[in-house]
Design brief:
Oligomer: single chain
Largest sheet: 8 strands, antiparallel
Number of helices: 0
Distance between the termini: 32 Å
Strand order of the largest sheet: 1-2-3-4-5-6-7-10
Order of helices and strands: EEEEEEEEEE
Shape: elongated
Structural class: mainly beta
Radius of gyration: 20 Å
Length: 162
């Protein structure tokens, strides 16, 4: 009922685009990254599954816009026949650029979805994304205050499979 995974990795990227001293874009950077990924999936009961992962990465360049750490946790609960409710949380670590841009603070986003599958062909769902309306941002080398991610939002879905 429990699955665990461990990945160790290293990859090299070359000819990354960066600005030169005259502020022109050139293929000039290289980066070597290495890290570890841990993942787990636990079928706690017949109706409840918990899964998650954690990643940590180190780079050879002073600043990589990708976060050094991230984590994800999700629960799926089949609380009635044909009904499923999930809650998932994603955490992204703080990033401190070496240029004029503001740091990108760490953030956690929580989403939730409830699903009803009337038959195999039909499925209805309602979701809330960014449940706590967190001011989350992604690094942008073009926008000084970085790129804002969407605030709290609601979705409804009707799906037909044929």
């Amino acid at each position: 009922d429990l699955q665990l995974g461990l990945n160790l990795y290293q990859f090299e990227r070359s000819n990354l685009i960066a600005t030169d001293p005259s502020n022109r874009y050139q293929n000039m950077d290289n980066n070597t990254s290495h890290g570890v990924e841990l993942e787990a999936r636990w079928q706690a009961t017949k109706k409840l599954r918990v899964s998650g992962n954690f990643t940590h990465r180190e780079d050879s360049i002073p600043f990589n816009p990708d976060p050094k750490q991230r984590a994800y946790l999700r629960t799926d609960w089949a609380f009635l026949p044909s009904w499923n409710w999930n809650v998932q949380a994603s955490w992204i670590s703080k990033r401190i650029p070496t240029d004029k841009h503001l740091p990108v603070d760490a953030y956690a986003l929580v989403d939730s979805t409830i699903r009803y599958a009337h038959r195999k062909e039909w499925e209805l769902a309602a979701s809330i994304r960014n449940l706590f309306d967190v001011d989350a941002r992604e690094y942008s080398n073009r926008i000084p205050d970085n790129l804002p991610l969407p605030g709290r939002s609601f979705y409804a879905e009707i799906r037909y499979k044929f």
